[in-house]
Amino acid sequence: MRPAAHAEPFPGLDAALKELRCSLEGIVDSSSLARALHSSDASNYRVTPEIVIMPRHRDDAITAVTVAQNHGIPITARGGGTSCARNAIGPGMIIDFSRFMSRIISIDPASRSAVVEPGVILSDLQKAAAPYGMRFGPDPSTATRCTIGGMIGNNACGPHGLSYGRTADNVRSMTWLTGTGEIITAGAGPEALDAVPGLRNFVSENMAVLRTDFGRFGRQISG
Ligand SMILES: Cc1cc2nc3c(=O)[nH]c(=O)nc-3n(C[C@H](O)[C@H](O)[C@H](O)COP(=O)(O)OP(=O)(O)OC[C@H]3O[C@@H](n4cnc5c(N)ncnc54)[C@H](O)[C@@H]3O)c2cc1C
Q: Is the shortest distance between the CB of 154 and ligand 1 below 6 Å?
């Protein structure tokens, strides 16, 4: 039993843990060790989560998000945890994609593209792409640890970002799971405006701010 000072902040936590343990193939860990290991990233902050999930595949991730939503538990996704601004830590559930969801699905030299899971480490992708004369453009200096999912979250750059662009400039299409459990696939083109519910309206309602305030400096992100 935890001391009162660390009393359970999420009333649905025990029920959520029970459901997760029954339904996930991946790891569901609420041990002090797992919580401590995921309580920091490369920032100065410490936030201890209640549950650490390591999904084995996409269905595990969907289940974890659904259970978290049903029980009012906030979620933070995590790759290598190399962010410097508290991006990869949070109080409820950490979903760590780096352990199992790190497969390179395909590399296609003809279209000069690769299909990967979010937990792929950048340097693993670079090694796999090199025989085809290909590379992923942006290269944070954490390349041997950082994941493609985390790079997308941070719109990571690195020195070669100057010539190849930021991560967003190098992602052709993405399938993602929202915090409310929707699965969306969208490319980089204007069709994304209709693929993401509400985005077209949001853009037209805020066109003035988007035009004048965004892109004033090279990298405008929130993690
Ligand atoms: C020494 C050092 C040097 C660095 N150099 C650079 C640099 O040169 N350029 C640069 O851009 N950055 C740099 N960084 C910052 C960081 O390493 C990069 O931004 C890196 O790409 C983050 O990847 P990660 O896998 O560690 O992501 P994390 O830190 O785990 O996560 C980053 C963000 O993405 C979200 N996220 C992670 N995975 C997913 C997912 N599957 N689905 C949805 N959201 C997800 C997280 O919630 C978080 O908001 C540096 C950091 C350090 C400590």
A: yes
